[in-house]
Amino acid sequence: MFPLRCSVRGCQGSLERQDRSLRCPAGHTFDLAREGYFNLTQPQDRRSKNPGDSDTAVLARQRWVQRGHMQGLVEAIKAILAETSLAMAAAPTIDLGCGEGSFGKAIFADAPEQFCGFDLSKRAVRLAARHWPEANWVLANADRVLPLADQSVCRVISLFGRRPAGEIVRVLEDGGLCLIAVPGQDDLIELREQVQLSGHRRSRTEAIIGELTDAGLQLVEHRCWTHAERLDKDAIEDALAMTYRAVRNSQNARLAEVDAMMVTLHADLLLLRK
Ligand SMILES: C[S@@+](CC[C@H](N)C(=O)[O-])C[C@H]1O[C@@H](n2cnc3c(N)ncnc32)[C@H](O)[C@@H]1O
Ligand SMILES: [Zn+2]
Fold first, then answer.
1. Closest ligand to 13 CA?
2. Ligand 1: residue whose CA is nearest its atom 13
3. Residue 33 contacts by C-beta under 8 Å, 6 or more apart in sequence?
4. What percent of the chain has a predicted confidence (pLDDT) above 90?
5. Which residue of 25, 119, 153, 173 is surrounded by the most CB atoms within 10 Å?
6. How remote is the CA of residue 161 from the centroid of ligand 2, in Å?
7. How remote is the CA of residue 36 from the centroid of ligand 1, in Å?
8. 19 inside domain
9. How confident is the model at residue 187 (pLDDT cuts 50, 70, 90)?
10. Considering its fold, how many domains does the chain have in total?
11. Which of 256, 267, 264 has its CA nearest to residue 231?
């Protein structure tokens, strides 16, 4: 059973599995949704101004990942993790902003019961639970208190997802690892130039490293992953839908005549240790 904690304000009791529910010692229960995930959100999470990605963005991301554009990135992530002293199947790993779950399954396929994905989009966790039912999936707001005890996990991953630095440090055991992927400055630069949406190169990576190291993690490794990929029209549309909340019609019109495009994919991979 994955070491989850009750999310009722002020409770924090550890959750035990009883048939199709999770139950804390104070009697709060959370039922397994029909689709195979637990909803640990509280009313304040559901009122969040940022309730996770829209269905449109989640589905575009799923098509994008399923087309195989990220296969090289999966290999790069596995290589970084394989170089650490933690075995891939070692004890609990969480994924903050797991989306539709393809990365989790591709990276941790051998240890589903030790893996738990968190996302605030119901659409995302439903897809993830359908895709990899053996793993644990939780609807939760990763920007609030995580439903996990202090020092209860040995690995945190966040792939283009949430990075609550203080909470990551709290739930990681000493010596635990945190692997973060963030879009690199050249990611989709050709596409961004074409639609003239922040076509300039800008990297947030240094600021992100600063936030995480200020919170108490040490940077072990910083690697760049880049790849040139030819996108057809559908892939271009998905890339825009999963990257920008709304692309204005005028910007879309600039792409109307483009049938295919070579683009750069670029991610910064950060490995940190507590
Ligand atoms: C760019 S997607 C990345 C998804 C996945 N990691 C991947 O790389 O395919 C970001 C994800 O973070 C989720 N998200 C956004 N705000 C969140 C929050 N406060 N708590 C949990 N998840 C959140 C979104 O719903 C979305 O699935
Ligand atoms: Zn409780």
1. 2
2. 97
3. 39, 126, 129, 139
4. 77
5. 119
6. 27
7. 18
8. no
9. very high
10. 1
11. 264
